[in-house]
Amino acid sequence: MVFRICFIWSSVKSPLGGTEYVMQNIINYIMQNQNSKYRVYVVDMSHKLKDNIKCAKDSDAVVLHSINPLLIKIPYLLTVNQKIIIDIHSPDWLWIYREKTYGIKPSRLTLLKRLMIGIFGKMLYCRSLNNFDYEYLSRMCKRAFLIPNPVDTKFFYPKCSKEDKFTILIRYDPSFKGGFDIFLKSLKNVKDIIHNSKVMLIGTREVSMELLSTLRRFTKVDVFVKAPREQLPCLYSRSHVTIIPSRFESFSLIALESLSSGTPIIMSRLPPVSWYLIEIRDGSPGTGMSFNPGDPVDLASRVRAFYDLWLNDKKTYEESTRLARRVAERFDISNVVPQYLKMIEEVINE
């Protein structure tokens, strides 16, 4: 049997972020390993509605990216009696975590999204990236699947040696979700450490001179925003720790990319950490440390603990870098994509 799959996605040929690279990895895996078993069609946001409907008609199942511009096509796609899987990458897609944790009321667009799921949910299949979302989607959708994202461990690996000076890598994301403000507030509590350390910034947002001046009052800063993707494995592996201060996340590919490159993480204690974070404690190696979401004082305590570990317990730190790599390998494309394809097969065969 040949399984015909229509992927309706954001840009895949010219990836803009992690979600596009995930889809690129899935398609490449199919082409390289299972080409005779699957026939794949891909349309993106630039295609017209009639192209989406044709793709759906010619397939056994549709996999739809969860971004808002594509969700409005669901009622039209259902008219062709096609099985639809919503692949939910958007962080806190229905704003349930934000509302419960921070008391943030959902936007009008999110309320419309909730209404849409209320109307069409039992006709849709949903793929979730963490247990928190899975719990809700299991009640809202016809069937929900809990499958992590893959990481390309052949691309992300310990490519470069660690810096001599204690080095922190962090993605610059000024949004409420990104939590960079939490990192900034934490610095005043680790002035003695950070003064002799270095911070490397990655990301896609431009960094203002005002922000750089603020950071450089505390520490040395190297800026690699908009760096070519090919540079990322070396940047990760040169660092001693990657900080992920997000207020909410669906999965965090940055976490996996860092671990795969042999660099442990400090991350907000969010639902996705159950996949890959093993706490480093009392001389016992792990993949990183977690802190209370939105708490700069707790983040600062973890930065201090990590610095002390790197400085005074090299053995545990080095064992943690190796464990980080081993844990990331569980999420390699070759392990995760077959789970993803099995999900599609199960939906088609229902």
Automatic annotation (TrEMBL):
Molecular-function annotations in GO: glycosyltransferase activity
- Can you give the residue ranges of the Glycosyl transferase family domain? 176-310
Pfam families per record: Glycos_transf_1
* InterPro entries with a match to the protein in the record: Glyco_trans_1 (IPR001296)
Q: Write down the superkingdom of origin.
A: Archaea
Keywords (A to Z) from UniProt? Transferase
> What name does the UniProt record give this protein?
Glycosyl transferase family 1 domain-containing protein
